[in-house]
Amino acid sequence: xxxxxxxxxxxxxxxxxxxxxxxxxxxxxxxxxxxxxxxxxxxxxxxxxxxxxxxxxxxxxxxxxxxxxxxxxxxxxxxxxxxxxxxxxxxxxxxxxxxxxxxxxxxxxxxxxxxxxxxxxxxxxxxxxxxxxxxxxxxxxxxxxxxxxxxxxxxxxxxxxxxxxxxxxxxxxxxxxxxxxxxxxxxxxxxxxxxxxxxxxxxxxxxxxxxxxxxxxxxxxxxxxxxxxxxxxxxxxxxxxxxxxxxxxxxxxxxx
Amino acid sequence: xxxxxxxxxxxxxxxxxxxxxxxxxxxxxxxxxxxxxxxxxxxxxxxxxxxxxxxxxxxxxxxxxxxxxxxxxxxxxxxxxxxxxxxxxxxxxxxxxxxxxxxxxxxxxxxxxxxxxxxxxxxxxxxxxxxxxxxxxxxxxxxxxxxxxxxxxxxxxxxxxxxxxxxxxxxxxxxxxxxxxxxxxxxxxxxxxxxxxxxxxxxxxxxxxxxxxxxxxxxxxxxxxxxxxxxxxxxxxxxxxxxxxxxxxxxxxxxxxxxxxxxxxxxxxxxxxxxxxxxxxxxxxxxxxxxxxxxxxxxxxxxxxxxxxxxxxxxxxxxxxxxxxxxxxxxxxxxxxxxxxxxxxxxxxxxxxxx
Lengths: 256, 355
Fold this sequence. Notes:
The complex is a heterodimer of chains A (about 260) and B (about 350).
Chain A: E1 4-15, E2 18-29, E3 33-37, H1 44-51, E4 59-64, E5 67-68, H2 74-80, E6 82-84, H3 97-104, H4 113-118, H5 121-141, H6 156-169, E7 174-178, H7 186-201, E8 205-209, H8 213-219, E9 222-227, E10 230-235, H9 237-242, H10 244-255
Chain B: H1 2-5, H2 9-32, H3 34-59, H4 68-81, E1 82-83, E2 88-89, H5 92-111, H6 119-139, E3 153-154, E4 160-161, E5 164-165, E6 170-172, E7 175-177, H7 179-202, H8 205-215, H9 217-222, H10 227-253, E8 255-256, H11 263-276, H12 281-310, H13 317-335, H14 344-354
Antiparallel strand pairs in B: 1-2, 3-8, 4-5, 6-7
Helix pairs in contact in B: 2-3, 3-7, 3-10, 3-11, 3-12, 4-5, 4-6, 4-10, 5-10, 8-10, 11-12, 12-13
């Protein structure tokens, strides 16, 4: 397949005496949907938080597009091209759906205080572009009709979509979705699946944490399995499904 | 101005009527006594302060209990650069920007160590900062006399525009423009500018980033907002407004001392923002005007009313003032927790909770 987009080498993370991640290495290739699965507490979200700069890591490094990623500040990670959603949706509740997406444009725009105070031509042009892009993205994820509603008033499924739209607004190369199907009903999950496949068609690389094994195995090009903070498998879905270690750690207990 | 274009015919007429009323107001007040013009001027000064604090508290959601420090910095910058104390007499249009800039730096200095703090902890640290500034002003008279200590600085220059000095009266077209009336018009111009700037900031990339931080700081970070810089910007912008208000205060009073910048003032300004409606510019203005005027009204009415009813003074107006003030806050928090005139988002939130 194509070039490597993200390469993590020997990532380690401790919380006090708990080794949440130990020597985790993985590679995500451009244009693929990469799944990350594992039992509860295996360290999936921790790894996510390390990749997106929310947790400082203890060991290892991450190369993104060939150059080391500065993991100390989340906004720099976003600027480098990694956008994320949260397991427990984190929207700006008292802002409208459109404003939420407009916030996502922040990192790709530059108007400052002076421009805003003077309403310079450059500032107005930029604002118009931000708004147009936000509306396009709301349309893309299928909630254009909710643009003027407060984020907190959207349905659960729509909030998930809005979070994805906000993440897309940062123009990511890699979109990291933390359990996007959690709490969704079958229809909403099917809709989400279409949305993620659409993202892949549009050339985006997706990193997906998911509990819904069927969704992951059906959607992903490759899957890594974490157990007790360590990677126990990384392969195409069929091979992962057949891997005895994985069955023992994960599928064995949850499937049957 | 884009605001005007979006307005209907009626709104334009309404706006024009308000403008005419505001132009005529000082003369109406002056007929009741120049003191009322002064009271009005201080109300406008507090509106400026509240709008500045609204950026920090209302937009960015950072609870600042030491806001009066920036007011003090602006006032002292003016006092030092336009009084016999150092023998400097710079014109006001030079000093006000300097005051804003110095206050802005002070805002960043306060903001920097508080970046990781939220809520109660932030409130305590900012409260401390406000007190530190006041105590500095009190003690910077030794070994080099900079602030003249608790005695304060007096004989501060009034504004001077060409031949017009704001200390005295001028007569133009049969109208007597007393000093306070001239300050009133100047304050109105500054207020207009501050309102326009506030509104523009609110609807800008930076304004959205402030609100995003208020709503969810982690999500704001992950969405690519440099929360450190954007928070510092909120402190800096709010402080600059405070600095300008402080400079005008010094010129209007012609006297400053540390006593004017006590914690109570910070709390008062915060109360104006909260009572009026955090985040909403018009609500904040209403809150500031209300809390500035009601105590003064009491001061002037309580005494005659008591004398007429009982023939003697039973309650001191000052006592009553704090009582009414406290009651107003308690009632507001009970019945309109988002303020008298909340930001649209908060209002929607509130009505939904009631339903």
